[in-house]
Design goal:
The complex is a heterodimer of chains A (493) and B (121). By secondary structure, chain A is an alpha+beta fold. Helix content of chain A is 38%, strand content 24%. Chain A folds into 4 domains: 100 residues, Rossmann fold; 70 residues, Dna Ligase, domain 1, CATH 3.30.1490; 243 residues, ATP-grasp fold, B domain (D-amino Acid Aminotransferase, Chain A, domain 1), CATH 3.30.470.20; 34 residues, no CATH class. Chain B has 2 domains: 42 residues, no CATH class; 73 residues, OB fold (Dihydrolipoamide Acetyltransferase, E2P), CATH 2.40.50.100. In chain B, the strands form 3 sheets. A 5-stranded antiparallel sheet of chain B has the order 1-2-3-4-5, with no helix packed on it. Chain B has a 4-stranded antiparallel sheet with strand order 6-13-11-8, with no helix packed on it. Chain B has a 4-stranded antiparallel sheet with strand order 10-9-7-12, with no helix packed on it. Classes of the chains: A alpha+beta (493), B mainly beta (121). Chains A and B meet through helix 8, strand 16, helix 14 and helix 17 of A and strand 1, strand 2, strand 3, strand 4 and strand 5 of B.
């Protein structure tokens, strides 16, 4: 087993990986940029190495600097987390040739499955159905335009090297195509250094359901069931859950999708943790979408329902261990729902809201798990994703899990910057959500039918503000000799 | 009169009759039981239906595109300028119907939070 592992990431996922490392008695090494000296992942690590300026290009994406940090600290393995270099085949290969174990799949499997167009070929070869689309990425708008006309609108534009909703655009008609193509490709270039975009026919009202797979280096590959991630804003997930509500309508779907995911992964010679994403249409047909060759943000819901620690399994697999369980030993118990707490303003198009967190409170109690990367007094930097924490709740049934998540959100506070906490709490009471009628346009519709919450607390607020905004008077009283105040209090006894 | 106690800096425990509330105050931001509430001074600042209104940068970023020209008629909710911040391109919208009076930002320039980008009258 490894003695020391470097985490080539930051924020909540770095903290999450360190938690497992400590449980396994493995030392952890954090890396950090200028913006992150005060970040929680640095505070929680055993060792920490500064790797460069704030822009990710010069720090968290700088392969040489991360490998230098690993050499300097004598780390035997690197966990890439998600995002940044986690799906970079060049990074995995550089680790391989530096003799440092990359905790993830082989660089070869990342190369195959990390490119969306290549992954589609592999999946189709393994028998999966895909949504009609261009097999190759395009940089020529005219060529893409012809294809869109041929498969029929609406179509989706996606960055070949993409992820996280960046470089993605829906196009409904000819007239909008050119402008959308330009935006998608410039966003793709800015985010991933590759302007190539591909075109895909859009499936209306699809559910986004993904299968967690896990394989060892000895050819054993299993699936750990699904996660439904249909609730998204700007194509980025907001709420994820296991099981998917659709499984109560059609229980055989889990096994069929699981088998399709395992076959695709096997065809790529895949090992370690990975996720195969599918779209599921109203007729419950499923289409292979892409594969994420890494740990997912939303892995906690799978952990809560299966009782497994995916990070621990990743580390054991990377160290050469066999899977400790077979497919028939995987059990799914109860229901888990996760929401992502973002520094953003849901009342203003989910615009990011970085800044200083003046007040912070974490929920706890039965069935609650919070994976956070922040603390009170910390300033959310401008340079990275605005996700602050993930809050996940487990309970025996989906309704109970939703009620529990709503309760946990009511205990949760991030003040000083805008957050989506109150908005998420509101969703946990929404009848359509509770009925499990989900698809990727859920939030768009939600905003159309949303009732504005009126504010019945005016009297209380004005009373509090009267006191809170009187800092001078309070100051004077407090600065009066404390000994005198205490003496007075004592004499009253 | 309610029973008000500041239990942590900026966190007030309120007992109104027997009802318990928690009020958090940070600058202009006020939350009652986790729910943001509009404070009077902010309502006033939001502006009325007439007179010029400003579309401001809500955070530091870079102007990607300007979608309107001076003199253009715009409707409420129409995108007027695209700003990239935190790797996201965000289209800022006109808060109401009107005419573009001034554009104070050029493409590819960086802007600070709070800076007026477009003025609409």
């Amino acid at each position: 087993m490894f003695r020391k592992v470097l985490i080539a990431n930051r924020g909540e996922i770095a903290v999450r990986v360190m938690r497992t490392l400590r449980e396994m008695d493995i030392a952890s090494v954090a890396v950090f940029s200028d913006a992150d000296r005060r970040s929680l992942h640095v505070r929680r690590a055993d060792e920490a190495v500064h790797i460069g300026p704030s822009p990710a290009r010069e720090s968290y994406l700088a392969i040489d600097r991360i490998l230098d940090a690993a050499r300097k600290t004598g780390a035997d393995a690197i966990h890439p987390g998600y995002g940044f270099l986690s799906e970079n085949a060049g990074f995995a290969a550089a680790c391989e040739s530096a003799g440092i174990q990359f905790i993830g799949p082989s660089s070869d499997a990342i190369r195959k499955m990390g490119s969306k167009t290549e992954a589609r070929k592999v999946a189709v070869g393994a028998g999966a159905t895909v949504v009609p689309g261009t097999a190759e990425g395009m940089i020529d708008a005219a060529e893409a335009f012809r294809f869109a006309g041929a498969v029929g609108y609406p179509v989706m534009l996606k960055a070949v090297a993409g992820g996280g909703g960046k470089g993605m655009r829906r196009v409904d008609r000819d007239a909008d195509f050119a402008a959308s193509f330009e935006t998608a490709s410039s966003e793709a270039l800015a985010a991933f250094g590759n302007a190539e975009v591909y075109v895909e026919k859009l499936i209306e009202r699809p559910r986004h359901i993904e299968i967690q797979i896990l394989g060892d280096r000895h050819g054993n590959l299993i699936h750990l069931g699904e996660r439904e991630c249909s609730i998204q804003r700007r194509h980025q997930k907001v709420i994820e859950e296991c099981p998917s509500p659709v499984m109560s309508i059609e229980p055989s779907l889990r096994e069929r999708m699981g088998q399709a995911a395992v076959s695709a992964a096997k065809a790529a010679g895949y090992f370690n943790a990975g996720t195969v994403e599918f779209l599921v249409d109203a007729g419950r047909n499923f289409y292979f979408l892409e594969m994420n060759t890494r740990l997912q943000v939303e892995h906690p819901v799978t952990e809560m329902v299966t009782g497994l620690d995916l990070v621990r399994l990743q580390i054991e697999i990377a160290a050469g261990a066999r899977l400790p369980i077979g497919q028939e030993q995987v059990e799914w118990r109860g229901s888990a729902i996760e929401c992502r707490v973002y520094a953003e303003d849901p009342e203003n198009g989910f615009f990011p809201s970085p800044g200083r967190i003046a007040q912070y409170a974490e929920p706890s109690g039965p069935g609650v798990r919070i994976d956070s990367g922040v603390y009170a007094g910390w300033t959310v930097p401008l340079d990275y994703d605005p996700m602050l924490a993930k809050l996940a709740c487990w309970a025996g049934t989906r309704r109970h899990a939703a009620a529990r998540l709503g309760r946990a959100l009511s205990e949760c506070a991030v003040v000083g910057i805008k957050s989506n906490i109150a908005f998420l709490a509101e969703l946990m009471k929404d009848e359509e959500f509770l009925a499990g009628e989900l698809d990727t346009a859920f939030l768009e519709r939600y905003f159309e039918r949303r009732q504005s919450i009126n504010d019945p607390h005016e009297a209380i607020v004005s009373e509090v503000l009267k006191l809170a905004r009187k800092p001078l008077a309070l100051e004077t009283r407090a600065s009066e000799s404390r000994w005198k105040t205490m003496g007075r209090a004592e004499s009253l006894r | 009169m309610s029973d008000l106690v500041e239990v942590e800096p900026g966190v007030w425990s309120v007992i109104d009759g027997t009802r318990v509330y928690e009020v958090r105050v940070v600058g202009e931001q006020v939350l009652v039981n986790g729910q943001a509430v509009e404070v009077a001074s902010r309502k006033a600042a939001a502006g009325s239906a007439s007179g010029p209104v400003h579309v401001r940068a809500t955070m530091p970023g870079k102007v990607v595109r300007v979608l309107v020209e001076v003199g253009d008629a715009v409707s409420a909710g129409q995108g007027v300028i695209v700003v990239e911040a935190m790797k996201m391109q965000n289209e800022l919208k006109s808060p109401r119907d009107g005419r573009v009076m001034q554009i104070a930002a050029a493409p590819h320039t960086t802007v600070d939070a709070g800076v007026v980008l477009v003025t609409i009258e």
